[in-house]
Write a structure and sequence with these properties.
alpha+beta; 8-stranded mixed β-sheet; 19 strands; 32% helix; 24% strand; globular; binds flavin-adenine dinucleotide
Length: 410
């Protein structure tokens, strides 16, 4: 196939970030061409967990739970402290505050939204080269032609080929986290229904998780921060060790079976130093190192940064590239910078066993702390809301959740 087109915007990558940007821009009447080197539905190494932030953004985008066959809403989070103490954090019932959905299905549903909005999505087409200009940008698509656009949104993930081609990445960058995931079936223990986070003493400030999926399946994995000491190549060994721990086996049920193969992938969490714009090229999602540095969750941040980039382009128009870029950078700063710093601080607390035990003791101390911590953990309010008055509103931790019952029926 030969691609040769002029568009208002070319989006590189059709994961949650790229599909969001494409949908919003196409709905606003911009001509949008999306390229992704993969063919959807495709897997993405991920925990498949949707935070409240992600859910609010996805609802705003128009994604309905019924569009994702294996969607599972979650009503509580179970934490296990390094001391073995278990705490249940209930989530409110007026909406969906946490959910899981296999990325294979979620990302395909988001690509469908972009296509329905009018974006031209070319799958199996990778960015090969990029030539920025003052009026437009050219993108060479692996032997398939050249696209020309006013703006390019680089949503091509952790290893962003766009970042590399423009030489704006950090040489040798490997991400702040490395995480490991495998699906399990025949899960008959509490993990069939419970979202569980295990703070294992030897993983801190990392953690192990089991996120429930329908039909006795679960997404199980663990993530470790790259602190310069932990050798990531030991993860396979660590994985079989973790899976033998008694509390893990009890949660999954003795007969659980691992599906297929494990996958591992880095997680970029450096929004405070990421290159967000380069002329008419805007980086979003993992390509902007936007994941939460305390939890490694990045779907909500991917959708949020993509929305901010799309809104900046829609508001600023085709000609004022500098103004559009500044608008994007400043809204990202407003929405994410203070939270990133707060997450980095809290990560330090969680890096020691005593800190993690103390934090879980405090949050378990009353019904109020349990309820509100759960909402805070799932990013219902920005991490640093307490110290950013510009983002205060009248109902902190009291606003109804996304997907209110009356609106969630397809
Ligand atoms: C093990 C693990 C567990 C995680 N768990 C969670 C979780 O539970 N919840 C959560 O919120 N986050 C989680 N994350 C983080 C989350 O997966 C990412 O933050 C999220 O996928 C970022 O979305 P994105 O659209 O920016 O990038 P991606 O989802 O990576 O999409 C990038 C797209 O770009 C395409 N692409 C790449 N190169 C090119 C190219 N040259 N040309 C064209 N296309 C290209 C890819 O094919 C891909 O489709 C986890 C990450 C890992 C590794």
């Amino acid at each position: 196939m030969t691609l040769s087109a002029t568009a208002d915007v070319v989006v590189v990558g059709a994961g949650p970030a790229g599909a969001t940007a494409a949908t919003l821009l196409a709905r606003a009447g911009r001509s949008v061409v999306v390229i992704d080197k993969a063919v959807f539905p495709r897997d993405k190494c991920c925990g498949d967990g949707l935070t409240t932030l992600a859910l609010r953004e996805l609802e705003h985008l128009g994604l309905r739970p019924s569009m994702v066959p294996s969607w599972k809403s979650v009503d509580a989070a179970w934490l296990r402290s390094p001391s073995g103490r278990e705490v249940c954090l209930p989530l409110p019932s007026d909406g969906i505050f946490a959910a899981t959905t296999p990325r294979r299905e979620l990302d395909a549903a988001l690509v469908d939204l972009a296509i329905d909005a009018g974006a031209a999505v070319h799958q199996g087409n990778a960015l090969e080269a990029i030539r920025p200009g003052s009026e437009s940008v050219e993108v060479d698509v692996d032997g398939a032609g050249t696209l020309t656009a006013r703006y390019v949104i680089a949503a091509d993930g952790m290893w962003s080929a766009t970042r590399k081609a423009l030489k704006v990445g950090e040489p040798g960058y490997l991400g702040e986290w490395h995480a490991f995931r495998q699906y399990a079936r025949n899960v008959t223990g509490p993990a069939a229904e419970r979202l569980i986070v295990w703070f294992e003493p030897d993983l801190l400030p990392g953690y192990m998780w089991s996120f429930p999926l329908p039909a006795g399946r679960a997404n199980v994995g663990f993530g470790v921060q790259r602190d310069g000491r932990r050798r990531v190549r030991d993860m396979k060994q660590e994985w079989s060790n973790l899976l033998q721990r008694r509390h893990v086996v009890e949660a999954l049920g003795a007969g659980f079976e691992l599906e297929d193969r494990h996958t591992a992938w880095p997680i970029p969490a450096g929004i405070d130093r990421a290159t967000l714009t380069n002329g008419r090229v805007f980086f979003v999602g993992d390509a902007a190192m936007a994941t939460d540095t305390m939890t490694g969750e990045g779907i909500g941040q991917a959708v949020l940064t993509a929305r901010l980039a799309a809104e900046a382009i829609i508001a600023g128009g085709a000609l004022d590239a500098d103004g559009v870029a500044e608008r994007y950078r400043s809204t990202v700063r407003h929405h994410l910078l203070a939270d990133h710093k707060m997450s980095a601080l809290l990560s330090k607390v969680l890096s020691h066993e005593l800190g993690a035990r103390g934090a879980i003791r405090v949050l378990a101390s009353s019904g109020w702390t349990r309820r509100n911590f759960a909402r805070w953990m799932f990013e219902d309010e920005p991490r640093a809301i307490a110290i950013t008055p510009s983002r205060w509103h009248r109902h902190p931790f009291r606003q109804p959740g996304p997907y209110q019952p009356q609106s969630s029926v397809s």
